[in-house]
Design a protein that fits this description.
Blueprint lengths: L1 H18 L4 H15 L8 H19 L5 H21 L8 H18 L3 H12 L4 H18 L2 H19 L4 H15 L7 H10 L3 H7 L1 H19 L7 H9 L9 H24 L3 H15 L4 H6 L3 H20 L1 H7 L9 H19 L1 H18 L1 H4 L2 H18 L8 H12 L6 H31 L1
Helix pairs in contact: 1-2, 1-17, 2-17, 3-4, 5-10, 5-15, 5-17, 6-7, 6-8, 7-8, 7-9, 7-12, 8-9, 8-23, 9-12, 9-23, 10-20, 10-22, 14-15, 17-20, 18-20, 19-20, 19-22, 19-24, 20-22, 22-24
């Protein structure tokens, strides 16, 4: 009965999220609440059994140490262990269902970006790109695409679109060209660029946390490939739009008259915030080597930013995307409930028939399934569930269990699949929905069909390229 209830809640919530019949955060919170009430264990569920088990273990340890330690020391250790164990069992039970490393990493980066965005630095970058291109529309598009991809790698793709898209609308209006191609190109670039690092795209944060992969690991293993993908994408933009965009000399002159320095509204905070951002990025690069969690780096950077930049703290906190954070928390609890009820184990058993297959074939199968699924049901939602299934499968399949290289091959394949697959449809990634919303407010309509016509070829080509990369990686390192 518990299994079927959890199954209905899990799939029902995901259907609501995918169809957008209900606000995605509301759907996730309702689903997670049902899991907490009826499926997941709380302090009152099985507490006696856990405490009994804890005390038995303590008693066993104490028994073994009686011959070696004095009675007073033994009693002190027993009391200390008992107290901490009971405290964890009773007070921290619900916190175990949420990956707070991901939550606090996102919150810290959101806060730091909010501080920087108030200085006008991102608008300065966008206008500078347009002027550097001398008002030529294709060059402007490619420079904005590159800027979006780079920013997305070190911020997050949603925030980057929120910062770049409004300026893009202004530039397109001044050039007298349609804004939709620019917005679509930037959206694709945000998802591509976000694939390069741990913090660039939320699915990578989830994967990194579960697979214990740090920022430097993502940079070394994915960033070079993403640079290749981005280069190919820019070449395709040049080939496709090369003869479709032209502007008059007068229009180009308008762009050259824009004053990028006027976009800077707070020079002092821009310099202070820029230094803090650089220190934070350095912290991400080093966190794996020094054994610090990404959330500590992000929150440390945010705290330092608030301390050295003269900003309204309450206003900065209000601008954090709380709906996104609660959406993540709801998803984590929802997946924990499904896992506790045995649903994830059932899903994992579906991969059991591949246990005797070649490692490369298994990884490619998971990649293509994940890429399509991420496009259809949102890459964050899909990843939150898929990582649990993959982790269980890797621990049970002999070809992966005994090979760290093969395990990493699977995680890199999954990361590329879900991040790049997010370009497939409007609902594939949060950045896509943000772009559509900004376009609608500006009077530009992007339909599901229009997005699919643009996004599907990009996604297909990206997944093909990612598959080639995984094949080469397998023969170079894992075979």
């Amino acid at each position: 009965m518990l299994f079927w209830f959890a199954t209905v809640v899990f799939f029902g919530t995901y259907i609501l999220i995918a169809t957008e019949k209900v606000n995605k955060t509301t759907a996730a919170l309702v689903g997670s609440s049902l899991m907490l009430f009826f499926v997941l264990e709380g302090p009152s569920h099985g507490g006696a059994e856990r405490e009994s088990s804890i005390m038995q273990n303590i008693g066993a340890v104490a028994g073994e140490s009686t011959q070696e330690r004095e009675h007073d020391a033994e009693a002190h250790v027993q009391k200390s262990v008992s107290h901490s164990s009971q405290k964890y069992a009773k007070l921290d039970i619900f916190a175990r269902y949420v990956n707070f490393d991901v939550i606090f990493t996102l919150a810290g980066m959101m806060l730091l970006v909010n501080i920087l965005s108030g200085t006008g630095i991102f608008q300065y970058v966008a206008i500078k790109c347009a002027k550097f291109a001398k008002g030529l529309p294709l060059r402007t598009m490619i420079l904005l695409v590159v800027a979006t991809a780079v920013l997305s790698a070190f911020l997050d793709n949603v925030t980057t679109i929120l910062l770049i898209a409004p300026v893009t609308l202004l530039v397109a209006a001044e050039l007298g060209v349609p804004a939709i191609p620019f917005l679509m190109a930037e959206t694709m670039a945000s998802n591509i660029g976000g694939s390069a690092t741990l913090i660039g795209d939320p699915p990578n944060l989830i994967i990194g946390s579960v697979a214990n992969l740090d920022f430097m690991a993502f940079m070394v293993n994915l960033a070079p490939f993403i640079i290749v993908i981005l280069t190919i994408y820019c070449v395709c933009l040049k080939l496709y739009y090369g003869k479709r965009m032209s502007v008059t000399v007068e229009r180009r002159a308008r762009i050259m008259e824009l004053d990028e320095k006027a976009a800077i509204t707070d020079t002092a905070n821009m310099k202070r915030g820029g230094v803090v951002m650089l220190l934070t990025i350095f912290g991400f690069l080093a966190h794996g080597a020094v054994g610090i969690q990404p959330c500590a780096v992000a929150m440390g950077g945010a705290a330092l930013g608030l301390a050295v930049c003269k900003v309204d703290v309450d206003h900065s906190l209000e601008k954090i995307e709380w709906s996104t954070l609660f959406f993540f928390m709801g998803l984590f609890i929802l997946v924990s409930g499904a896992d506790h009820a045995g649903l994830m184990e059932k899903f994992g058993s579906l991969l059991a028939f591949t246990k005797d297959w070649n490692v490369l074939v298994i990884v490619l199968l998971v990649m293509w399934f994940s890429g399509v699924a991420a496009a259809l049901m949102n890459n964050v939602s899909f990843t939150a569930a898929m990582v649990t299934i993959i982790a269980a499968f890797l621990n049970s399949a002999p070809v992966f269990k005994d090979s760290l290289c093969n395990q990493h091959l699977m995680w890199w394949g999954l990361s590329l699949a879900v991040c790049l697959g997010g370009n497939g449809t409007i609902v594939g990634a949060a950045a896509n929905l943000v772009t559509v919303g900004i376009a609608e407010k500006a009077g530009e309509k992007i339909t599901f069909k229009n997005f699919l016509i643009y996004g599907f070829p990009v996604t297909l080509a990206s997944l093909v390229a990612a598959s080639i990369y995984i094949v080469l990686r397998y023969f170079m390192y894992c075979r």
